[in-house]
Amino acid sequence: MHAEGLAVVGQAGLQAMEEAGWEPDVVGGLTMGADPIAYSMAAESWRRGRPIHAFSVRKQPKRHGTGQRIEGCFEPGARVVVVEDVITSGGSALQVCEVVKQAGGEVLGVLALVDRREGGYKAIEEGGFPVKALFTPDDLRAGSAS
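Request: output the structure for the sequence above.
Response:
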């Protein structure tokens, strides 16, 4: 949630989606890890003049109000890129993909900041969703070397 980090993540996330050929209406994922990623990408898309809005998926439906799991700028029929902070088992991303599909959205792919290389990337692909990760642990270790 560092200001510079948000700017970098927004730019890198949009670039990664462009490289993947994904043109979503909205980006989002499981609250709370995906929220700053989705919001930074939405803000950067606005600055670029091609708005992509954001949404959040609750871990559990609210017990009051509408009882929805998806909050934000999601509508049935939306083209969606699911965002993740870290892929480990892939379970969170697959859960969000299922929630989005049940709500009438089309999942274009899953974009993560880090793939921990613990099987989650493959599990998401096997679930039928393209995946793109910006970094692996090796990338992060290489970046911290002095």
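Strands lie at 26-30, 53-57, 70-72, 79-87, 106-115, 131-135.
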